[in-house]
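Q: I'm writing up a methods section and want to include an example of the input and output format. Could you take the sequence below and give the corresponding predicted structure tokens, formatted cleanly so I can copy it straight into the document?
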Amino acid sequence: MLRLVLLLLLLAAPLRAETVPLLDPSGVPGLGRNGQAELSRTLLRNLPRAFAIGPGGAYASRGGNAAPEVLAQAALDACQAHTPGRSPCQLWLRDLEIVFPGREWATPPAPAESGWRDAMRETLPDARFLWWGPDRARGVVLWAHGRGASGEDSRGRQPQAWLRHLNNAGFDVWRFDRDPAADFTNRAAGWMRADLATLRARGYRRVVVAGQSRGGWNALQALDTPGLAEVTIAIAPAALASMDEAGQARQMAALRAVVAGARPAAQARVAVANFRDDPFDGLPEDRAAALRALAPGAAAFLLIDRPDGLAGHSAGASSAFAFRFGPCLLRFVVEESPPISC
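A: Here is the clean output for your methods example:
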């Protein structure tokens, strides 16, 4: 894992580690190789997260859905358990900050009002990710959340953790949030096309559009307009809430229509992930075959099709998916040649 983080730092050039001490585990005082490897894994987890260090190379990491202060104390307590009778452990990392005394560092925030909004949607940088800015960033990811069958509001939800691989390597992460009352499939696709063009105009060198479920479906729809994005990544794309036999047939017909309408630019790269036991994927063989029809028109096509050990419509949000496929998706985004198999 330490080698993976060093690779990510190399990939991030010219965004060098000396300007981003958060991403340099070797700079932590007294931390050995095992601790550096654990900190590297922590830096690839979503927020909240905490990492504590202590005398003799002691360390502990905590993350999850608890309150940040609870996780911080849990990391300190776990670290202290390895140093009985010694000096107390101290926090090194809290979320996106180094908080160790004398080594404090925090990522600069995105400029105020850098996003845009109207009554029905909002597009903005996600403050839970490092901010690079168009001048320094290797590129930008526009992330689109799904649309729940019962109409729940997904605005503000943290993007999936595999995007940490891209963010740590120099890509800004923007959220494409929509009011569920107005989030109709074709309307949202139109908003997405406009937002991708706006991000390009902001000066980003490489534009990536990615999404989960309906957000992934919208990303595939945007392939009908060449030049909006160099890379499209659709995680468990779906568009219909009714998944009875008739609904599955309608969704397959709609997917084939989206694929038939795709006009990716010559340099465009397209990746899709499907998962076992996904209720929105009742015809997995037909679905995989339909998606593979995107390959001839793309510079590179990657299908992560029903990988072992990952199941369900939300499998792409899991830490298991992030650690297993995040490095491959990063390579897919940054390289120009066809990818190796994930």
